[in-house]
Amino acid sequence: MYQGQDYGNITSQSNYLNESSYNFTNIKKQAYTIIYIFMMVFISISVLLYISQVLNINQSSSKLLQLEEKLETFRARNERLEVELASKTSLAEVEKIAKRELNMVEAGKKETLVYNNQIKRKENFMADIPKEKFFLAQIYDRIIKEVTTVQAESLE
Amino acid sequence: MQQFEESVKNRVIFYFAVIFILFIILALRLVFIQVINSAEYEHKALSQRVKEFVVNSERGIIYDNTGRKLAVSLPAKTVVALPDNIINPEKTAAKLAEVLDISYNIIYRRITSSAAAIFLQRKVSEKTYQEIENKNLKGITFTEESKRYYPEGELASHIIGFTGVDNNGLNGLELSYNNYLSGKAGKMIVEKDAKGRTIPNGIREAVPGRDGYNVHLTINEVIQYMAEKELKNAAEKFDFSGGSVIVMDSSNGDLLAMANTPAYNPNNFGDYSDKSWRNRAINDVFEPGSTFKIITAASALEEGVVTENDILTDPGHIYVENEEISCWSNAGHGKQSFAEVVKNSCNPGFVEVGLKMDKKTFYSYIKAFGFGEQTGIRLPAEAAGIIPEYDRIGPVELATFSFGHGISVTPIQLATAISAVANEGKLMRPRLVKEVDTGINSENIINEPQLVRQVISKSTADKTKELLKQVVESGTGTQAAIEGYEIGGKTGTAKHYNEDIYDSSFIGIVTAGDRDLVILTILYDIKGKTYYGSQTAAPVFKNLTSNILNYLNIKPDQNNEFDYQQNQREIIVPDLIGTEFLKAETSLREKGFNVKLIGDEGIVKDQLPKSGVETNYNSTVWLFSQKEAKEEILIAVPDFRGMTGIEAERLAGQKGLELILDGSGKVVGQSVYPGSRVKNYKKINLKLR
Questions:
Q1: Which of B1, B233, B463, B526 has the fewest CB atoms within 10 Å, counting from its CB?
Q2: B172, B159 in Cβ contact below 8 A?
Q3: How far does A84 lie from chain B, in Å, by closest CA?
Q4: ipTM score here?
Q5: Closest residue on chain B to A111 (Cα)
Q6: What value does the mean pLDDT take over residues B121-142?
Q7: B510 or B183: whose pLDDT is higher?
Q8: How many Cβ atoms sit within 10 Å of the Cβ of residue A116?
Q9: How far is it, in rounded angstroms, from Cα B211 to Cα B190?
Q10: Whole-angstrom distance between the N-terminal and C-terminal Cα of chain A?
């Protein structure tokens, strides 16, 4: 009969797990493993991040190039439109439209009216009123004033 | 068994050695490629990916003085064929022939050629580009170029000129300012992928070019348009080969307009004859005719050989060295002051004045006014005009010069010279380009107004202007008068030799604010019954000037009634013989005479007119230091017929002639033919009845 090792007693016989040296080594191993894993994850994430950033940059650059091309196209179009506008608003074109489409005709002889404010207005001075008529003239003036003066309406 | 093991081991070693040697060879090759010959392979790799492009610089813009663009550059597509990529050349050629301005055969020949790429049509329109693009033809592609475009069409085409297909100036300012306008091409290096797309973040290097500089002109678009329109209107009324109009600001020489007919559109200049491209105001010469009398008058007034009050006579002609020079008026203008000579545009009167100046003096004034040399306007092929050589000028030539014949000038020379009269005698260089805009990083090139020289004094210039005003007010230039404005001017009509063809012109000076504008209108080779400058060029001037004044908002002044008042006072010439020159001059000037001194200073030996003669206030008295000098002077004989003896004596005295009267009554005959020029000591017999 096979007399093998008594596995039931292994724990009790060796009990090496409980030895302090074994525990320390095991923890150390585990710690290294964790660190390795962590580092691996960190490196992987970093690499992934780097790759994604590079891709992002490439994508953005590509977009930038497209936008630059688009801008160039718009700029060229803008220039063309500006020139077209200048062409359409040239004096020859304006005259053509005015004559053909709006049936306008050229002005004939120009009449210039000059307002001359330097001319002195002729004033008729009344002859001196005789003293006996002076009182009557004053009454007449007062009546005229009453009739012609209008009282402005108050806002309040 | 051991032998077998040995054999296997040897084989392994052998194969290992072989593989090792192969690796060594590969490693060496790698070293050769990567280290020793790396540069070459790197270059080969790069040249596959990196493309180099020439970035064409943009040609500068030409602006008018209000900021309107007269010439611009726009991107335009050029149709390029890649013969190797074309699948069906017949079909492609047929489709392209529908759109392009090239025949099927030419297109077919080109697209089947052995070239890698070939231009089919350069700088096509946007519409043509879109049409070809929509056809989606294999092997037909486009490249971008810059095309010159003139938004205003015909406007100022003779000034601006045009460029060729390679954007180099061929005419006008495009040619003369090509160095400034054209700029410098740049370079661009870009990394591309297999499909020809730009690799983002790839190699991208640029060698920056320089865009062309923008040029700002003195030309005003509106005034230019008005000038061109008036020429077109004139073409409908008169039969002429072409015309020129120049509007110049005399204060600084700025050209506000320079128009010519026939005109052309620089956008498709190839459709017009090269005659239409000529800027006749610069390139061609003409005989100025009477407009040149302004120069004669200004020179004579400045030299003091004549004043506006001097008495001159015109019997309808004058003889110079046996050559008869006629006045435009067959009957002649009779006795008249110099002011009236100018007003009537009297040829014999001007001949008399021109001959009073000696050859050297008159010639130097002609030169000083800028005739016979380029004005320096910086337009291509500017003509210098034709002034006969000094040694070839005799009295006849001098006489014809005085009324603008026998010399040829360019319109720009004439306008510039008359501007000197308008600008207090200062001759300015005509200016077309005000500023060259060199961009933000450098200082702009400013073309400041340039004073060439002071030709005549301010007082002479003012006097000449006054004389010209009366020409428009009541002389030969009344057709140019505009109510409410003071305008001075002169008509000109020059007949072509042996042909009934005329060059008619009018040049006027008009005040516009604080400056004087000089406006010149010329109609070349006029045929038909209406050819005088007063009938043709003067109305063109009038319409144009009134439009310009209206545009510049210069209001008419009804109080501007010009009335040239000549001093009617008559004074008696004192006896000055034996007096010192300086004292005699002072005495005469105090009395109201103009003095012309002949000879070195010293004692007055003789005088003209003689003492005791009653003559006009401010007329000229000649003082001689030598008697012989007086005897050299030739005096034109008036037509005394019809005058009484007293009248004849009086006129002869004023002119410096001596008479012998025979009989009484009115003069019926004279011993010397009217218009002949005789020495002043020769006595003329008059027969009275």
A1: B1
A2: yes
A3: 7
A4: 0.72
A5: B483
A6: 86
A7: B510
A8: 7
A9: 21
A10: 133
Terminal C-alpha separation, chain B? 174
Q: Which residue has the tokens 């231009």?
A: B119
User: CB of A67 within 8 Å of any CB in chain B?
Assistant: no
Q: Within a domain: residue A77?
A: yes
Distance from CA of A80 to the nearest CA of B (A): 7
Annotated catalytic residue: which of B290, B345, B505, B676? Answer: B290
Single-letter amino acid code for the residue at B316: G
Cβ atoms B522, B508 nearer than 8 A:
no
Lowest mean pLDDT across B8-17, B323-332, B365-374? B323-332
Domain ranges of chain B: 2-36, 53-217, 221-551, 570-688
| Nearest partner of B230 among B521, B525, B524, B555, judged by Cα | B521
- pLDDT, mean of residues B580-600: 88
Find tokens 């002195």 and name the residue. Answer: A120
pLDDT, tens digit, for every residue of B236-282?
Answer: 999 999 999 999 999 999 999 999 999 999 999 999 998 999 999 99
Q: How many CB atoms lie within 10 A of CB B641?
A: 15
Which H or E run contains B261? strand B254-261
Question: In whole angstroms, what is the distance from residue B525 CA to residue B284 CA?
Answer: 13
Angstrom distance (rounded) from CA B386 to CA B407: 6
- Say how far apart CA B367 and CA A66 lie, in whole Å: 65
DSSP state of B431: B
Chain A residues close to B200, C-beta within 8 Å:
57-62, 64-65
CATH label, B53-217, candidates 3.40.50.1110, 3.90.1310.10, 3.10.450.330, 3.40.50.2300: 3.90.1310.10
What are φ and ψ of residue A58, in 5° steps?
-60, -40
Mean predicted confidence (pLDDT) in B423-450 = 92
Question: Nearest 10 degrees: CA dihedral of B290, B292, B297, B300?
Answer: -130
Closest listed residue to residue B451, CA positions, set B412, B413, B415, B419: B419
Can you give the residue range of the structural domain that contains A85?
Answer: 7-98
Mean pLDDT of the region B602-622: 88
Identify the CA nearest to B149 among candidates A98, A76, A95.
A76
Domain count, chain A: 1
CA distance A45 to chain B (A): 24
- Provide the chain B residues 255-294 that lie in CB contact (below 8 A) with chain A: none
- Average pLDDT estimate for B385-395: 92
Confirm if B387 and B372 have CB atoms less than 8 A apart: yes
- B290 as an active site residue: the answer is yes
A-chain CB neighbours of B74 within 8 Å are 76, 79-80, 83
Q: Tell me the average pLDDT of chain B.
A: 90
Residue A134: the pLDDT is: 59
Q: Do A90 and B556 touch (CB under 8 A)?
A: no
Q: pLDDT of B636-653, one tens digit each?
A: 999 998 899 899 989 998
- Contact (Cβ atoms closer than 8 angstroms) between residue B215 and residue B177: yes
pTM of the model: 0.81
Alpha carbon distance B514, B509 (integer Å): 13
Q: What is the CATH number of domain B221-551?
A: 3.40.710.10
Residue A39 has pLDDT above 80, yes or no: yes
Q: Which of B69, B125, B127, B149 to mutate to test the interface with A (most CBs of A within 10 A)?
A: B149
